[in-house]
Design brief:
Blueprint (H helix, E strand, L loop, with lengths): L3 E3 L5 H4 L6 E6 L4 H16 L5 E6 L4 H6 L7 E6 L2 E7 L4 H11 L1
Parallel strand pairs: 1-3, 2-3
Antiparallel strand pairs: 2-4, 4-5
């Protein structure tokens, strides 16, 4: 199983920069659409292991980061490359739609 990094204020900056593109899932445990996206996120993390870093950030414990990244609804996915946001998606999406966004990062 691939590693999905749990983000917090302590590690957000270091984990979202670097040589690999990054996908950040802003979610909450009580969010139905977030729960439905979780298996897709995990499958794609496995498929793109070593090519893209997959991270999750629980907004309930990290409100400042959610506000700083202008996350108003969840789930919200940020697609980052070289420390810059290239794309963003709010709400659910199919695995095919998600994979298209990942391919654009590579």
């Amino acid at each position: 199983m691939s590693e999905i990094i749990a983000l917090s204020e302590e590690n957000f900056e270091t984990e979202t920069t670097g040589s690999l593109p990054v996908v950040v899932d802003f979610y909450a445990d009580w969010c139905g659409p977030c729960q439905s996206m979780s298996p897709i996120f995990e499958q794609l993390a496995e498929a793109y292991e070593g090519k893209i870093r997959f991270c999750k950030l629980n907004i309930d414990g990290n409100r400042k980061l959610a506000i700083a990244n202008q996350v108003m609804n969840i789930p919200t996915f940020l697609f980052l490359k070289d420390g810059r946001q290239l794309d963003r998606h709010t709400g659910s999406m199919t695995e095919a739609e998600f994979e298209e966004k990942l391919k654009a990062l590579l």
